[in-house]
Amino acid sequence: MKQQFTAHLWREDNLWVAQCLEVDVASQGTNEEEALQNLREALELYLEPPLPNPLPLLRKVEVELGVA
């Protein structure tokens, strides 16, 4: 499935910054196209469904207590 997002581009010193206006994600590159490609990759990673977390393993531990 494809979805379109709006990118705001601007130059900072020697780099181009690309920021997505709909989602708080930004990236940069040495030119406009590289900044946009890096933003695409960052958005894909950000919007990737989370992996299910396995349930933690819980165990009872018995210890011998000495008399103080």
Structural description of this entry:
The longest helix has 15 residues, at 32-46. This protein has a domain at 7-46. The chain starts with 6 loop residues before the first strand and ends in a 22-residue tail after the last helix. The chain has one helix at residues 32-46; strands spanning 7-12, 15-20, 26-29. A three-stranded antiparallel β-sheet has the order 1-2-3, covered by helices on one side. The protein is built from one helix and three strands. It is elongated and about 70 Å long. The protein is α+β, with helices and mostly antiparallel strands and 68 residues long. Strand 1 (7-12) and strand 2 form a beta hairpin.
Tally of helical runs: 1
In terms of DSSP E residues, the strand content is 15-25%
**Percent helix among the residues?**
10-25%
> In what order do the strands lie side by side in the largest sheet?
1-2-3
Quick synopsis:
This protein is of the alpha+beta class. It has one helix at about 30-45, and strands spanning about 5-10, 15-20, 25-30. Helices cover about 20% and strands about 25% of the residues.
Spell out the blueprint of helices and strands.
Elements: E1 7-12, E2 15-20, E3 26-29, H1 32-46
Antiparallel strand pairs: 1-2, 2-3
Which structural traits does this protein have?
elongated; alpha+beta
